């Protein structure tokens, strides 16, 4: 099961005593800051959690899995995540 944005809002509400509206605004603001930074090509480092990086993918050959037809995939940017050592240790 995945942790949803609504559950994050509830957890913030419970742990800080903020109203649901304020907790929602806080989460939305944080996500907007992260999205804006990534869209400009900036990496986002959250100490003790991990790093979101924007990587450039080159044009390459691909294949449509439904038809098997070969095609060229265009250049694009993708977001990757590398967790911190602290997070890795906590997970393991």
Automatic annotation (TrEMBL):
Swiss-Prot/TrEMBL keywords: DNA recombination, DNA-binding, Transcription, Transcription regulation, Translation regulation
Gene3D superfamilies in the record: IHF-like DNA-binding proteins (4.10.520.10)
SMART domains: BHL
Any single Pfam family the record assigns to this protein: Bac_DNA_binding
GO molecular function per UniProt: DNA binding; structural constituent of chromatin
InterPro entries: Hist_DNA-bd (IPR000119), Histone-like_DNA-bd_CS (IPR020816), IHF-like_DNA-bd_dom_sf (IPR010992), IHF_alpha (IPR005684)
GO cellular component: cytosol
Single Gene Ontology BP annotation: DNA recombination
Domain of life, source organism: Bacteria
Annotated family: Belongs to the bacterial histone-like protein family.
Name by which UniProt lists this protein: Integration host factor subunit alpha
Species this chain originates from: Desulfosarcina widdelii
Source lineage: Bacteria, Pseudomonadati, Thermodesulfobacteriota, Desulfobacteria, Desulfobacterales
């Amino acid at each position: 099961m995945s942790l949803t944005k609504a559950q994050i809002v509830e957890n913030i509400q419970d742990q800080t005593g903020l109203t649901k509206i304020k907790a929602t605004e806080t989460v939305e603001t944080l996500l907007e800051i992260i999205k804006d930074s990534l869209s400009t090509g900036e990496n986002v480092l959250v100490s003790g959690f991990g790093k979101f990086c924007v990587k450039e993918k080159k044009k390459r050959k691909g294949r449509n899995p439904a038809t098997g037809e070969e095609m060229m995939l265009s250049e694009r940017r993708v977001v990757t995540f590398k967790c911190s050592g602290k997070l890795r240790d906590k997970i393991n």
